[in-house]
Specification:
Length: about 160
C-alpha cells in the first residue's frame, strides 16, 4: 500500500493559527504548530511559565466518538507521574482513561466541560481542552510534524500495514 509520507503534510493557517494539514485515507486533520504532542494523542500547550494546557487531538476524538461523561480522579494540587491516571472519559465508541502526558501537578479541569462536554469533540484545540498541569513535558513530546509521523505508525498498526 502506498501512503503519503509525512513530507506530504502541508503547513497552513487553519483555525486562525498556523497548523499542519494531515491526510491519511479518510482521516483529515489540522494539527496546530504552536504546541507539543504526545504519542498518547494528547496535545500540550504552554499557557504561562510551567503551566501546560492539555487536550485530546482530533485523532483521539475520532476514536472516542461523541463524549458523554468525564470524571477527574485527582484534585487540584495532586502530583502526578508521567502515565499516571488523571481521570476517564466515556464516548459513544469507547471509554478511555485519561493519563498525564508529563510529570507534574494537576492544576484544574476545564470548567466549561461541566456545562458542555460536546465542546471536547467540536473544538478539541480550543475551548475543548481537558485540564491544566504544571511541570515540564518530557523529551518524548514532539512537534506537529513528529506527531504526524507517530500517527502514520499508529494507523499502520491499526490497518495491519506495518511494511
Amino acid at each position: 500500500m502506498i501512503r503519503p509520507a509525512v513530507d506530504s503534510c502541508l503547513y497552513s493557517r487553519g483555525m486562525n493559527e498556523p497548523s499542519l494539514r494531515y491526510k491519511r485515507a479518510r482521516f483529515i486533520a489540522r494539527f496546530p504548530t504552536d504546541r507539543l504532542y504526545a504519542a498518547s494523542h494528547f496535545w500540550l500547550q504552554e499557557q504561562d511559565s510551567g503551566i501546560w494546557r492539555i487536550g485530546f487531538t482530533s485523532f483521539a476524538m475520532r476514536m472516542l466518538g461523541e463524549p458523554v461523561e468525564l470524571e477527574f480522579k485527582g484534585r487540584p494540587g495532586t502530583h502526578l507521574r508521567r502515565g499516571e491516571m488523571v481521570g476517564w472519559i466515556e464516548g459513544f465508541k469507547a471509554v478511555t482513561d485519561l493519563y498525564a502526558p508529563m510529570a507534574g501537578r494537576f492544576e484544574a479541569g476545564n470548567p466549561r466541560l461541566d456545562l458542555d462536554l460536546g465542546v471536547v469533540k467540536a473544538r478539541p484545540y480550543g475551548e475543548g481542552w481537558l485540564y491544566d498541569m504544571s511541570g515540564a513535558p518530557g523529551g518524548d513530546c514532539v512537534d506537529a510534524r513528529g506527531y504526524a509521523a507517530l500517527l502514520d505508525e499508529t494507523i499502520d498498526r491499526m490497518t495491519g500495514d506495518d511494511s
